[in-house]
Amino acid sequence: MPNVALDRVYYMRIVLGIIAGTIAGFAIAPGTDQGTAVGMALGIAIAFFLISVVIGRMFAKGQPKEVQKKAGYDGIVPFIFMNILAMVIVYTALHQGSILK
């Protein structure tokens, strides 16, 4: 029987990855140097991941200890993937005119 708390954590991380990537896509301007852009993207991603860890632990309250531990980091790969995907799509959609020049 699948654990509902872990499923909720997994999908919540996907949604927060999309939100974090969207915010990063809006926050990075075309003229931003690479170090600043990477720092902003990582800062936003880390902030949202820490928020997701807190929410994931709240979802897993009352579950066995092993489920609570797994809830802290379950779904990290989809979070990273969706974060990067959303950031690239939003940035490209917003700044495609300046990118193609």
Give the SSE order as H and E letters.
HHHH
Classification by helices and strands: mainly alpha
Percent helix, as a range, is over 70%
Terminus-to-terminus distance: 54 Å
The count of helical stretches stands at 4
> What is the 3D form?
elongated
What does this structure look like?
By secondary structure, this protein is an all-alpha fold. It has one domain (4-99). Helices cover 82% and strands 0% of the residues. It contains four helices and no strands. The protein is elongated. It starts with a helix and ends with a helix. The mean pLDDT is 89.
Topology diagram in text:
Layout: H1 4-27, H2 34-59, H3 65-73, H4 76-99
Helix pairs in contact: 1-2, 1-4, 2-3
